[in-house]
Amino acid sequence: MADRDGPIYDRLARVPEREWRGAGLDSLLDDAREPFVLRGLVADWPLVAAARRSARDVRGYLVDHARDRPFMVSIGPPGHDGRLFYDHDMAMNFRSGTGKLADIFAGIDKGEQLGDIRTVYLASIDIPTHFDGLDEANPLDLGARDPLKSIWIGTRTRIAAHNDFPDNLACCAAGRRRFTLFPPDQFRNLYLGPIDHTPAGRVVSMVDFATPDLAAHPRFALAMAHALTVELEPGDAIFIPSMWWHHVEGLADFNILVNYWWRRTPAWLGQPQEALNHAILAIRDLPPEDKAIWRDLFDHYVFENDGGVTDHIPESARSILAPLTPETAGRLRAFLLRTLSR
């Protein structure tokens, strides 16, 4: 691993690496439920080749493929340390706006020339809608998967630990990326912030990984005992399974990550986060005795979901209690929309 710094990194284990022979990626991903690294997976991409020449070359390569449309960008104020997070008042410590990619990169060029590199971050930019031919020129065969394809571009950044529902294959195209990962069950030890007021749409850890305050966050020491860390060079990739927490740092002056997200369940099924939000609205503040009843019902209908739910109902009359189809899922979604709009 490349040089590690900061108080937590001497105490973390490495993400295991899988041998990559140029084939068999589909089978590697099929049943994977633990993170792993694939060194050199996308080393032959033209995007990576441009990055190896220089940051300016890879920016030019992206501009050549960029569509004529606005790009969302986050910018830190002077003196920003790259941590895209909350300020002391729990507002965001960066401002967001839009601009043409060439103009955004011109600002980075100027900062490099003046030695005044500001925090600039373009997060989760959809590749097909924002670039023409970039995906085709830098392909990755994921078999039958139909992933969302995103690119993340920026200066030195620190992105708070968060998780995502889809599986994720993240490829370092320029600069260096450090990932610190935690299993899904460590959420209590990461001291999560608000669900509905977040820097980028997902709840994040409130712990500053550069200077963790174990007096304020004592259980973070337990999370660190389960943590994995790895640094990626251009061409390397990491697989992050669904719901694994990951803290991500851009370590170079200019960094690019390309990632692929896919679900193991059909896209027409709902998002679990929406169910959690609704449960907070409808159940969390009930009296304890009422919550106990609903906990039992959730176990019966959702988490256990055994034959006791439907065996006594004629098969043709089980409706949404039967395994969902696109049609029954659509009817259920329409019913929820009607009830929520009342």
UniProtKB/TrEMBL annotation:
Residues 109-277 form the JmjC domain. It holds the Pfam family Cupin_8. Coiled coil: none annotated. Gene3D superfamilies: Jelly Rolls. InterPro entries: Cupin_8, JmjC_dom, RmlC-like_jellyroll. PROSITE patterns: JMJC. Transmembrane segments: none annotated. It comes from the Bacteria. This is Cupin-like domain-containing protein. It comes from Sphingopyxis soli.
